[in-house]
Fold Polyamine aminopropyltransferase.
Amino acid sequence: MSEEKIIDGMQYGFVPNRHLWYFEYYTPGNCGIFMKMNKHLYSAQSKYQRIDIFETDFFGRVFSLDGITMTTEKDDFFYHEMLVHVPMFMHPNPKKVLVIGGGDGGSVREVLKHKSVEKVIMCEIDEMVVEAAKKYLPVTASKLDDPRVELVFEDGSQFVRNFKNEFDVIIIDSTDPTAGEGGHLFTEDFYKACFDALKENGTLSAESEDWLYDGAWLRLAYSRIKKVFPVTKLYLGFMPTYPSGMWGYTFASKGIDPIKDFDPEKVKNFGEELKYYNEEIHKAAFALPTFLKKELENL
Amino acid sequence: MSEEKIIDGMQYGFVPNRHLWYFEYYTPGNCGIFMKMNKHLYSAQSKYQRIDIFETDFFGRVFSLDGITMTTEKDDFFYHEMLVHVPMFMHPNPKKVLVIGGGDGGSVREVLKHKSVEKVIMCEIDEMVVEAAKKYLPVTASKLDDPRVELVFEDGSQFVRNFKNEFDVIIIDSTDPTAGEGGHLFTEDFYKACFDALKENGTLSAESEDWLYDGAWLRLAYSRIKKVFPVTKLYLGFMPTYPSGMWGYTFASKGIDPIKDFDPEKVKNFGEELKYYNEEIHKAAFALPTFLKKELENL
Amino acid sequence: MSEEKIIDGMQYGFVPNRHLWYFEYYTPGNCGIFMKMNKHLYSAQSKYQRIDIFETDFFGRVFSLDGITMTTEKDDFFYHEMLVHVPMFMHPNPKKVLVIGGGDGGSVREVLKHKSVEKVIMCEIDEMVVEAAKKYLPVTASKLDDPRVELVFEDGSQFVRNFKNEFDVIIIDSTDPTAGEGGHLFTEDFYKACFDALKENGTLSAESEDWLYDGAWLRLAYSRIKKVFPVTKLYLGFMPTYPSGMWGYTFASKGIDPIKDFDPEKVKNFGEELKYYNEEIHKAAFALPTFLKKELENL
Amino acid sequence: MSEEKIIDGMQYGFVPNRHLWYFEYYTPGNCGIFMKMNKHLYSAQSKYQRIDIFETDFFGRVFSLDGITMTTEKDDFFYHEMLVHVPMFMHPNPKKVLVIGGGDGGSVREVLKHKSVEKVIMCEIDEMVVEAAKKYLPVTASKLDDPRVELVFEDGSQFVRNFKNEFDVIIIDSTDPTAGEGGHLFTEDFYKACFDALKENGTLSAESEDWLYDGAWLRLAYSRIKKVFPVTKLYLGFMPTYPSGMWGYTFASKGIDPIKDFDPEKVKNFGEELKYYNEEIHKAAFALPTFLKKELENL
């Protein structure tokens, strides 16, 4: 980490490139994660948010919106596999999928591992995010040009209202409610529109923030989805570069139960490479710590 | 967070107490967690390590050794419940328990929730840690003066060698291998001595670092324990203020299997308050992400 | 700076004590100075302000009010010598001196190097600052127990109104106008009261902030003093641990001119050790950069 | 500084763009300056050094080599005026000037304010610095395309050896001895070659680091130049964004004395706009604090 220089008989402790840092402040504003940036690859203010992509030694490329980490090459699969494969494996035969948000492309990449899928619409409000991801995040955005993918650059909370009984799976891969326009994707109205846009066997997942720093949002997302869907279950996954590392997701459906109706054999025989998600993780994700179970029971 | 002052007609954006910060650098040294400190309560260099305890708004009191976070009042129960209750509930009737390390007292506090326990020896190398914890961490150290507790201030890796067939449960609550003298508690010799000190039905748990930043240590701890114990299983728990939030623990025994031999009814009927651990969490903790399963299979 | 540890065959780059940092944010709030703290010696919230004293490797002990650096053992003499000796050497025979603020004792220490002085009243609003300085800042507070010193714990802006034609020299050693109650010491009323409390040959100095980050306060202090005193001159000194390193002081008198009436021989023959101030520095301090001369001409 | 967002009834303290920071570590490595970056404009690793240019709210554009601040739009004139105008005004009629280093163009800009100048050779080792400065630092690099300027991309410590009795003024505008190849510009051999390349009336200035953090280099530069030149004098200037704000420069000549031979009228009648330097500043800059005078006397 440190390199010594001896110049003209004087020894110098020299620490190169120690000068550029990224600080993500967690909600209360007095704690967070810091990362050294090697190189700032992209930085822009879109109509909706500040976009930054930078290189690090440890995490590879890091993508941030309004100073909130969205993905790193190191651990993006933790998040995208948990968000996508839970509702995808619960659906008996997912053909048509709607991804709301998800501009970096990681959710689409995971959806397309399911061979039954014929079409994915990704509705991302911010076209600049998608352009930047295609250019600078090839690992995450690898499938955005797949012919089965249709990209729509609109407000997902409005776009979903165009459909009734249309999708097999809806994946809400929003930014933080406090970044950009993320808040629109946390309203009851929006969840109701998702319900209507889903077919009878439809399943849904929604990123639901973390308990420690954003517990209010987690409870809000869960309780609002629960008002709309007959089956609503919170599940958890590790996600190292997100606040607290304990990430919340909400599964919802019109009847399918993510535990009772789960077929581990489907996962075992999947054929495609998954790095995080497996049949044991699926079940384990719905086991909640006692404090969290109690909080949800009271909602 | 910010308070405005208007003095003599000039307006000043004034942000009080923004000046004292704690930075924990994770292993690669170019990332980590930061926390604002409200007040530094205790700071000392013991024979073994640098000890700091400080107050924060969000985490309550935080305890750090050599700049590595050991506990915060906010989430100490995540860690201590997972470290302690897994081996404790797996033992049919734990009476005598050895805690190695654990100077803050959190493990002892959890052990004593089990009514069968008659004696806990806590062997902590650094007496100054225990003194500081008693004074400044009342939530964590609450049971260190319980009459069933015997405190020993010695190197646990040596102390355990004094016993053969003595303990029902051994809990290795070490600091990081890189802080203070933590490294001694990660050797095969030491694990062998633990095996010898355990009775036939004995169970053991060992904190085993995190995969993301300290994966080499996690694999080392697991593989060395596996050489010594017939049953060795890694399990995971969320731990927000530890690196990556995905904390590794190793369970080991002379025969008891943490899944097959687990009796969920014992947990359900426990009677004592547990905030994190429950019977579903117990089983879920042994479900490992695919990448980690594969790594362990190759060891 | 970095120490390697090899534990059990694994090499670890280990950087001890890298975890406690002090950040002073300069006025615009998006830049400042950072220092590693070795040990936090004192931390308290008085009635007026947050007080912190900590040890560093490089600066020795550092004293901060509301997160603003007041003194460091490394460079306190830069500031205190410039604040004190300019008005002290300009007075023909200073016997009675009033220090307003200056709770760390550095100004009193410098005043008492002048053998003519019979009495110094130090009026510091915050008694806790003085107590902390006596205990933790022996280098700075070394003369606070001298029999010629009278300590008064009152608001200096009120206290000075008790005197007419009383002092030979008044030294305004305030905190920042934005810290604690510092703002009271930047009003025209207060400067008028200082004028009245000074004898005919009286001289005054006032710390006047820095131009780069706090130029508005520098201009305010200078222009208000100028309304009250017939002779008013800004002077500058280096001060490494204050914002920008270019510190402003205002000299004022009822007639004595700090250049024309200056006698370099007095300084040369002073006899007491001065580390920063000398007869050439005295004159040089009144040479202002062109941009600053122009700003002051327009006030 | 903070902007509130209310989304769906939940209020959020939102601090946009707080995530990208620049930290310059001063020599001992445990203190320094920090600045929030708005936008990273340029980042590259040249053959010699890491180059970064970024935008800030407060300082405008900032240019850094190996994490060491070279110029900011806010205060570049402090440094460049003091480095250039002292030797330029001391020469009776400067026609041919050599700038060694100075890739940002600030020294050339100041040199060309002197109407007598017919030719400036700027010898900068790193062509990428000049290209970046031309593109991103228009304020500093404004005169690099002037027809009187010849740009040479070579090691200045070698290049100067090509000349004997050639230049009227030489300006050593090096980077830090610890950044890039700066160390070559602090050797006695190099200073001897500068002496030889200067004409009889020649004058020279060399940036000489700061006393507080880099005092060893300051003393080294001064003492080596003194071995070579009959007239050698250290002078000081404020420089807010350089370490300590107290910047050292060495003036040297074959006989001209920067105080005795100084003609203030030349400065008064200069005609070109100078923002920092003036005839009083010229003289004041050679007044050294007592501690520094003593250090230099002992060299």
